[in-house]
Amino acid sequence: MAPTTLLLAAPRGFCAGVDRAVLIVEKALEAYGAPVYVRHEIVHNKHVVESLRRKGAIFVEDETEVPEGEVVVFSAHGSPPEAFANSQQLSHSLIDATCPLVTKVHHEARRYARDGKDIVLIGHEGHQEVVGTMGQAPPRSINLVETPDDVDALELGEDAEVAYITQTTLSMDETASVVDRLRQRFPLLHNPKKDDICYATQNRQDAVKVLAERCDLILVVGSQTSSNSKRLVEVSKDRSVPAYLVDEASEIDPAWLEGVETVGLTSGASAPEVLVEEVIDWFKSRGTTEVDTVLVVDEDVEFAMPSNLARRLQEGAPRPAS
Ligand code: SF4
């Protein structure tokens, strides 16, 4: 038996940073012609990456893999300063697709380091954004923590001037216990000026919280590599509503739907809407009759193109000989 009702979270899917990053690669291909190299997956979604690959993007893990003089786009997650230096050394035409909200955190890290503060970054070890942010300050002045226990293990005196920053895709709930422990241990703790959790992360989580009150099950469209998508699953489970992450409709296991009447559907900030539409069709073709949108917050955030790409597009200049 198919569930009778499918509730769609709003907002869901692409955020302004991802929208911009994908558009940057497409516009770079238009302005310079293929190939355009992209450092790291431009966003954490295999469908987006595959579609850009078909259009002529070449994905590399390291900027030093890009031949001299070629066009390279740096991903939305942000990159450490060494990557920019290496790229300059290789005379690349560099287009930076770092999300402006991540850049804001980079500025904070550099400012705190300049002011001689000990920085604590709350984030997941190995995540691309964390690698980029850790690189903004000298290694001795920045420490990564994930849990309150990590705060206890920091080798800093109680009177240290500690300032914290956070990975943008963590939820407020997730950072709250770590921030509380930081406050207990370091009474002189400096907060970031405005919270670093991005509007899109917060809004998508808030929408899942509302869906969780009305649904028996929640499906999140997104890739396993997407931190914010995985977090949406956890937000639902935290409210005792089972939830699964699926890359596409074919990954839905009908066994999950036994006894389920209402399914909530959302998608991570890097998942294209076409994949959500396929899931909706999957349910309709099995007999789900009611499909409603639950609007929690209206979003109207947009970020401008990097100035060098905008100029290039205006000039319409041909690709330089390499
Ligand atoms: Fe930027 Fe937020 Fe999107 Fe990350 S999730 S790319 S910080 S808008």
Question: Quick summary of this structure?
Answer:
This protein has 322 residues and is an alpha/beta fold. Helix content is 39%, strand content 18%. The structure holds iron/sulfur cluster.
Please provide a written account of the structure.
The structure is a single chain. By secondary structure, the chain is an alpha/beta fold. Helices cover 39% and strands 18% of the residues. Strand 9 (217-221), helix 9 and strand 10 (243-246) form a beta-alpha-beta unit. The longest helix is centred in the N-terminal third of the chain and has 17 residues, at 16-32. It starts with a strand and ends in a 7-residue tail after the last helix. 44% of the residues are buried. The mean pLDDT is 93. It binds iron/sulfur cluster. Iron/sulfur cluster binds next to helix 1, helix 4 and helix 8.
